[in-house]
């Protein structure tokens, strides 16, 4: 099931996406969900065309955690060794935007990069999750772009500013709850030109590895997001560019880059 978060006429709700296709809104409708979808939920039967709503980030953010250098070819392209343990960083919820929203180019950087990633959405509160129970705590998966101020990342020991600036975490277009994430095609285009192409099977640490590692340290809550790393091919974005992240079985997340006003 595809679960979207959207606004219409000033109201915000979740809805189940119905219809064929993974990205084209034509013919798709939303069946509005009663309440918040992480626990058991009911469909209201009230339906609205997807073309009539504004899609929002598909989660109400609590925490956004990223995994750095989780594809060997990406680590190599930036001259980094594969880390001995997963590199975990945090992005604030103020970084969240949805598909169609603008990435605002930060004034402190001259080298902003795209990073196409599979994102995991947590569905229940959990801590110290054993490997065999990882699937039980996952709500679903969505597309992410871990937008990074690369020059700032190189010059500062902590990645908070480089990866946490406003609008640096596009997510969407929705969460797919019924998906095997182990070997999906993941690609990124800029102005229609392919820049990244990889498969989730190329991850160094699996989703199970990552969730076990994170929950040894902290409690995860429903709606928390884990970005699982990016394949090779990262590169610069400029004001005016349109960047799109497409993941097999989910859909396409599209954003334009604008100058921060």
Automatic annotation (TrEMBL):
Residues annotated as domain Rv2993c-like N-terminal: 1-58
Record-annotated Fumarylacetoacetase-like C-terminal domain positions: 63-257
A Gene Ontology molecular function term of the record: isomerase activity
Alphabetically ordered keywords of this record: Isomerase, Metal-binding
Keyword Membrane attributed: no
Pfam family, one: Rv2993c-like_N
Gene Ontology biological process: carboxylic acid metabolic process
Highest taxon, organism lineage: Bacteria
InterPro entries the record matches: Fumarylacetoacetase-like_C (IPR011234), Fumarylacetoacetase_C_sf (IPR036663), Rv2993c-like_N (IPR018833)
Gene3D superfamilies in UniProt: FAH, Fumarylacetoacetase-like, C-terminal domain
Official protein name in the record: 2-hydroxyhepta-2,4-diene-1,7-dioate isomerase
Originating organism: Streptomyces scopuliridis RB72
Upper taxonomic lineage: Bacteria, Bacillati, Actinomycetota, Actinomycetes, Kitasatosporales
């Amino acid at each position: 099931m595809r679960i979207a978060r959207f606004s219409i006429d000033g109201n915000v709700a979740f809805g189940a996406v119905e219809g064929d296709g993974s990205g084209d809104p034509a013919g798709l409708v939303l069946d509005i969900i009663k309440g918040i979808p992480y626990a058991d939920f009911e469909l209201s039967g009230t339906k609205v065309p997807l073309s009539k709503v504004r899609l929002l980030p598909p989660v109400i953010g609590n925490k956004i955690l990223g995994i750095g250098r989780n594809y060997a070819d990406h680590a190599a392209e930036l001259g980094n060794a594969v880390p001995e343990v997963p590199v975990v960083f945090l992005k604030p919820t103020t970084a969240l935007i949805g598909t169609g929203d603008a990435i605002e180019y930060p004034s402190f950087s001259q080298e902003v990069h795209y990073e196409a990633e599979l994102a995991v959405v947590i569905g229940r509160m959990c801590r110290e999750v054993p490997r065999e129970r990882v699937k039980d705590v996952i709500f679903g998966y969505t597309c992410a772009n871990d937008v990074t101020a690369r020059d700032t990342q190189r010059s500062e020991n902590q990645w908070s500013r480089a990866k946490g600036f406003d609008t640096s975490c596009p997510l969407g277009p929705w969460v797919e709850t019924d998906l095997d994430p182990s070997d999906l095609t993941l690609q990124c285009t800029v102005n229609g030109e392919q820049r990244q192409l990889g498969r989730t099977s190329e991850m160094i640490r699996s989703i199970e590895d990552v969730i076990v590692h994170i929950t040894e340290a902290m409690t995860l809550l429903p709606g928390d997001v884990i970005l699982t790393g990016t394949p090779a091919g990262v590169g610069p974005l400029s004001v005016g560019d349109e960047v799109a992240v497409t993941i097999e079985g989910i859909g396409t997340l599209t954003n334009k880059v604008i100058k921060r006003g």
